[in-house]
Structures are given as structure tokens and as C-alpha cells.
Amino acid sequence: MIEMKVAGIALDAVSRTPIVLLKDSGDRRALPIYIGQEQARAIINALELQKPPRPLTHDLIANILEIWEMSLDRILIHALQDNTFYAVLCMSKGEIKKELDCRPSDAIAIALRMNTPIWVMEEVVADASIPVDREADEKERRAFRDFISNLRPEDLIKKGGLTTNE
């Protein structure tokens, strides 16, 4: 799993559909998720710490969890199928832990209100992320290729990776 943060909301240049953009801690990968107008507004309100005069749905859910002394431990975006992302709210109360299916946009809006970490499965990041720092990625690939090309079997034996009996 990779922890990600909300980098912001953008609009698709062609369709004008809102996109929530998640980034990993190293700003190496970005995960764009298309969302609806209302969900974009809910996420923007949370990012800007805006409090509505009356609780909206995401505020209400956060209030319910708080009043019932439940913790939102994390949200997890765990799958991508047919261009649809799937997420769960990972909640607990004492020793009891539950996961609740949720749209990623709603999970993110709730997580922002409750200062809860956002986690994404590595497979989802691999399938749907876009590189942000291509230069760093290429530098890492070159360093790995150099390491592999200079690797000798005797180096593995010396470092304890293999024994001569194998």
C-alpha cells in the first residue's frame, strides 16, 4: 500500500469533468480519479476548511463517527475495474474493526474532514498513476541497470546472499 495525499482538484480539459489528484509522499506518482461536481465541491470545502452552516453529508458522517466514538483509521482505494475505482472506509471502535464499501470521492471527502490517511494499493497505483518526476524515475532506472550490470556471483557469496553449498 502507498500513502497518498490530495494534491488538488483539476478539470479534464476536454470533458470539463472534475478530477481529484492524489500524489505519493515523494511526489513521484500522481493518481487522477474522475469524480462528480458535488464530490469535487465537498473535497474543495474540506481542503479549504470551510464549515457549512448546517452539516452536509460528509460532515454528517464524520460527526456520526465521532459521536459514536468510532475511529476512521484510514481509507483504502483497493481496486480498479473497468475504469472504476473502489474504496473502503477502515473503521474501528475498540477492538472491533470494520470495512465499509465507499466511492473513492466520498471516502476522500470524509478522510479530509477527519484528518485520516489515504492509502492506495500498489497495483492500483501501477495501473492508473501517471509519472510526475520522469527525471527521477529515469535516474532510478539507470542506477538499477548499473547495479545489475556490475553484479557478479562472487559478490552475492561474499555478502551472505548465497552459500557455496547451494
Describe this structure in words.
This protein is α+β, with helices and mostly antiparallel strands and 166 residues long. It has two domains: 130 residues, Bifunctional nuclease domain (Roll), CATH 3.10.690; 34 residues. Helices cover 37% and strands 34% of the residues. It contains six helices and eight strands. A hairpin with a 2-residue loop joins β5 and β6. The two termini are 34 Å apart.
Write the SSE topology.
Elements: E1 2-11, E2 18-24, E3 29-34, H1 37-47, H2 57-67, E4 71-81, E5 84-93, E6 96-102, H3 104-114, E7 118-120, H4 122-128, E8 130-131, H5 134-149, H6 153-158
Parallel strand pairs: 4-7
Antiparallel strand pairs: 1-2, 1-7, 2-3, 3-8, 4-5, 5-6
- Domain count, please report it: 2
Q: How are the strands of the largest sheet arranged?
A: 6-5-4-7-1-2-3-8
Average pLDDT: 88
Largest sheet composition? 8 strands, mixed
- Quaternary status: single chain
Q: Given the C-alpha coordinates, what overall shape results?
A: globular
Beginning-to-end CA distance, first to last residue: 34 Å
